């Protein structure tokens, strides 16, 4: 299994994973992640650093991604970005609650055939909230009008934000480990499904004999 990759915007320095449209209950599904990390790259006279977290479903689909992008040099910009799978209702935006802070609404900036992204300017008070929040709760509304809530941990955020950027080989190792865990989870789900089908067939056979 491979986690599917696509760049989220011009501000993202390395590809992020994403997937096709999710079902109504996608956010309630148990997800895995390689945790918070910082990745930086130089692009000419501009340096781009991204502090990122991705929640990945057992299918390899990214169901929620958070990115704090800081661009310095010839271009100066700081952006807080959350992406969810496409098929969202745009007017409600994303509802975001960090720890015990008041819930806020972040409007969508753009949608592609695969993802919808909501963005805010990245300010010091938002970073402080993320460092002390513990968890971040995100709610989107799908095309059926149903809320898709998901809770993500902020454990490790402060260390990633204030620390050094992760080396490319370490990031690749993290991604490989995550893919292996997802492959194992997918195999376990398939095995349970096959066992349930076999049990159902056995029950039908027993009933027909009576």
Structure description:
- The protein is α+β, with helices and mostly antiparallel strands.
- Helix content is 28%, strand content 36%.
- It contains 3 helices and 12 strands.
- It has helices at residues 124-133, 157-162, 168-209; strands spanning 5-6, 16-17, 37-43, 46-56, 62-73, 77-85, 94-98, 104-106, 108-111, 115-121, 135-141, 147-153.
- It has a 6-stranded antiparallel sheet. It has a 4-stranded antiparallel sheet with strand order 8-7-11-12.
- The termini are far apart.
Summarize the structure.
With 210 residues, the chain is α+β, with helices and mostly antiparallel strands. The chain contains 3 helices and 12 strands. It has helices at 124-133, 157-162, 168-209; strands at 5-6, 16-17, 37-43, 46-56, 62-73, 77-85, 94-98, 104-106, 108-111, 115-121, 135-141, 147-153.
Structural classification: alpha+beta
Could you tell me the radius of gyration in angstroms? 20 Å
Oligomer: single chain
With strands numbered from the N-terminus, the spatial order across the biggest sheet is 3-4-5-6-10-9
Indicate the low-confidence ranges by residue numbers.
Answer: 1-28
Helix-strand topology string: EEEEEEEEEEHEEHH
Strand content: 35-45%
């Amino acid at each position: 299994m491979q986690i599917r990759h696509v760049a989220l915007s011009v501000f993202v320095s390395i590809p992020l994973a994403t997937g096709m449209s999710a079902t109504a209950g996608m956010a309630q599904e148990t997800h895995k992640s390689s945790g918070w990390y910082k990745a930086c790259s130089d692009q000419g006279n501009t340096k781009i650093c991204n502090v990122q977290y991705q929640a990945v479903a057992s299918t390899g689909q990214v169901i929620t991604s958070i990115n704090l992008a800081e661009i310095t040099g010839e271009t100066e910009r700081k952006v807080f970005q959350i992406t969810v799978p496409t098929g969202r209702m745009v007017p409600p935006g994303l509802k975001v609650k960090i720890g015990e802070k008041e819930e806020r609404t972040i409007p969508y900036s753009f949608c592609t055939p695969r993802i919808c992204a909501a963005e805010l300017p990245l300010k010091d008070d938002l970073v402080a909230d993320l460092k002390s929040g513990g968890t971040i709760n995100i709610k989107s509304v799908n095309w059926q009008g149903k809320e898709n809530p998901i809770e993500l941990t902020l454990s490790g955020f402060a260390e990633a934000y204030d620390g050094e950027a992760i080396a490319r080989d370490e990031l690749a190792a993290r991604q490989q480990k995550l893919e292996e865990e997802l492959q194992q989870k997918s195999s376990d789900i398939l095995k349970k499904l096959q066992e349930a089908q076999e049990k159902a067939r056995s029950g039908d056979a027993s009933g027909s004999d009576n």
